[in-house]
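Hi R.,

Here are the chain sequences for the assembly we discussed:
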Amino acid sequence: QKEVEQDPGPLSVPEGAIVSLNCTYSNSAFQYFMWYRQYSRKGPELLMYTYSSGNKEDGRFTAQVDKSSKYISLFIRDSQPSDSATYLCAMGKGGSEKLVFGKGTKLTVNP
Amino acid sequence: SQTIHQWPATLVQPVGSPLSLECTVEGTSNPNLYWYRQAAGRGLQLLFYSVGIGQISSEVPQNLSASRPQDRQFILSSKKLLLSDSGFYLCAWSRTDEAFFGQGTRLTVV
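And here is the predicted structure of the full complex:
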């Protein structure tokens, strides 16, 4: 079983839709969780960072962590064409432990 | 604020030629440094990571190597490139939690 599983998509939605992106993980030692957005031919940029179970909201983006189910989600409200990108989840154990990334979900928001 | 610089942005190299990609970080000290390769549809593959000067861990055996001659400098090298080395190479840094990426180098080996 892979440490982190992420549906690669692709996912295509109309502008204004609510988008749900998800990752599952197997290692309960993961303590913090991130979502990155990567535009084509660019490096990933950190979008959301969470440390505990529950929800964290930032504008149109909400990150949700359920440690009991080993499941994390990113919700995008009122999606825009500019949200079209690949979204990667990542998680870590802290200290000098390296991060583990999902393979990314490619999202297209159609105007 | 911290910034990460990675260059060059694109590179076309012939098979058998050497490679040197450089990454530097500003505004922080003693960062963890990473080299990733990203192939289309295959996600991020961790190649090397370093927790300090001269300390390099290799994740994938191949004809690439990494060095960290200074605290905030990380270099990816190869003595002889293979066609299979083509890809998008990303440098990243972290302290304890979040990682921050450079803009990547698209390497094409011809």
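Chain B touches chain A through 24 residues (CB under 8 Å). The mean pLDDT of chain B is 92.

Let me know if anything looks off.

Best,
T.
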